[in-house]
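Notes to self after the call with IL:
- keep both proteins in one doc
- input above output, always
- annotate only the second one for now

Protein 1:
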Amino acid sequence: MALDAVEAIRRLQDRSSAKRRSAAKRLRKLGDSSAGPALLEALKNEVRDSRTWETQYQMTMALGTCGSPSDLPYLRDLVLRRETLHAVHTAGGDAIVRLSSMEHSHTEAIRWCLSTGDEILVGGALQAVAMLRLALDQEIVSDILDFIEARSPQEGIYFWPAVAAAGWTGQRVRQFLTECLSSPRSDVAEAATNSLAGNYGTYRPL
């Protein structure tokens, strides 16, 4: 039987990392805002142990669906710490965009992620852009493509913008997607094919 929000929140304090992780995954799916404070406190404790990267990832992703914009200062500080794990950078980028979108400030959040130069963080941010199907103006799209196209086409960072571009417009977007069709990565080429047809495809981040 699936956990309800109350039981999932309780299990965030379980001694087992696997149970804490499954609780976070359940809360992420429920998107219950009442879980936000508990997730924030659980994540603050979890990041002290570098062995539990999967649990940290799921807690951060869950905070993105259950938290509030008041959690953004902590998340921004977390992803800037040298010791923060790569998985948390990905989830942090996703959560920062999701929570910022609640206040319609996702463009500023995307710009902030780009300004760090952190490819993993930017990848997470673009994952959220794609999954939320955010329609961005051409100025921020241009900033995103400047960042992406400065990297090798073989890098995975091309995937989420290729998905998100289904909701973007402009000649540069079409050119980007056309170039992605010949990507050495089949996942990027598939995403570009879908986006050129105006289809986001069906993807489910871990």
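Protein 2 (the one to annotate):
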Amino acid sequence: MNIKDFSKLVGLSPHTLRYYEKIGLLKSVQRSQSGHRFYTSRDKEWIDFVKRLKETGMPLEGILTYAKLRELGCDTLLERQQLLEQHRAFLSSHIQELEQHMLALDDKIALYQSGKVS
């Protein structure tokens, strides 16, 4: 699949995909005989995972660290697991904070709904 179609499929601009390739986040992108990028289902799976990490608040530096470990192969499984466990702990803490914010907003909304605020 060419970069234009792949871009639409994964929801990232061609510029972002080229940037990810430049910084080493997207490696081994195949090329056609004419030199155009050609993306595979494995590239899609990887980009979907990268997007998930990014959407859950993992900094690009952490994603790059994970990608480098992944590239090194099976010897880094424990390190990758630990990196994901650390991110999960961060995410869990962040979710708890958001839940507290939600409760505070619910309390304020209930106050307004009760009519006891002028």
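Annotation: The chain is about 70% helix and 5% strand. The beta strands are 30-31, 37-38.
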